[in-house]
Amino acid sequence: MNNNILSLQSVSKYFTxxxxxxxxxxQFAALDNVSLDIKEGASLGIVGESGSGKTTIARxxxxxxxxxxxxxxxKDKNILSLNNDxxxxxxxxxxxxxxxxxxxxxxxxxxxxxxxxxxxxxxxSDKNKIKEHxxxxxxxxxxxxxxxxxxxxxxxxxxxxxxxxxRALSINPQVIxxxxxxxxxxxxxxxxxxxxxxSLQKNGITLILISHSLAVVSNLCENIAVMQKGRLLEYGNTxxxxxxxxxxxxxxLLVASSYTLMKK
Length: 264
What we know:
With about 260 residues, the chain is α/β, with parallel strands linked by helices. It has one domain: 3-Layer(aba) Sandwich (Rossmann fold), CATH 3.40.50.300. The chain has helices at about 55-60, 85-95, 110-120, 125-140, 155-170, 185-200, 215-220, 240-245, 250-255, and strands spanning about 5-15, 25-40, 45, 70-75, 75-80, 95, 175-180, 205-210, 225-230, 230-235. Strands 6-7-8-3-9-10 form a 6-stranded mixed β-sheet, sandwiched between helices. The protein has a 4-stranded antiparallel β-sheet with strand order 2-1-4-5, covered by helices on one side. It is globular, with a radius of gyration of 19 Å. Pfam families: ABC_tran. One of its GO terms (molecular function) is ATP binding.
């Protein structure tokens, strides 16, 4: 019995581009025969340029996309063959934080209303316990409890991302997948969100971070996967991969980012 919480085995995903009204289009591999294991409680950063396949991996794990070939295992269960009850439990345990928090927050609902349905469904229906849970969530993401009565438009971008993280955490997931969670935020706010992401690991949550920034990944993640055009080029301990890259692509990413690995 291994301690992998997620395992991708020879996973591929294809999309078809349209070449015109009377053309059937061209098929390309967004993900090409990718295999990787993610340990429970670990942190993995997936890096690569646009079109590398890193977001496709995230969406496959979250079942937004379905793999065309290969298998994805969650605690030794193939997510492609889960029954309805198991799918519901899986969606509860694997949550995604998107680059744009507006994708997850309903502008017509208060923050409390956005959070409370999931809590009632998965955690508790007791009013006192719901209040305690909400208090704990807001404290965890560094926002005052009274902000629950506000609407998304009343917050800054950084605050909305904190609320988006709170929403993902509200149902006590085991895995958080964060897709470029700070790339649309001001530099002054990015460090606050990254520190929040780092604190999640202290609670035993498995973190998968999708990013184009080697500096962000090296700061947050113990392991790194380097992607290019749908293929996994390098995978291993972050310090080891970045200090001794084996491929020209990884070396070029290091040069392009003007990144120097800081020894920890």
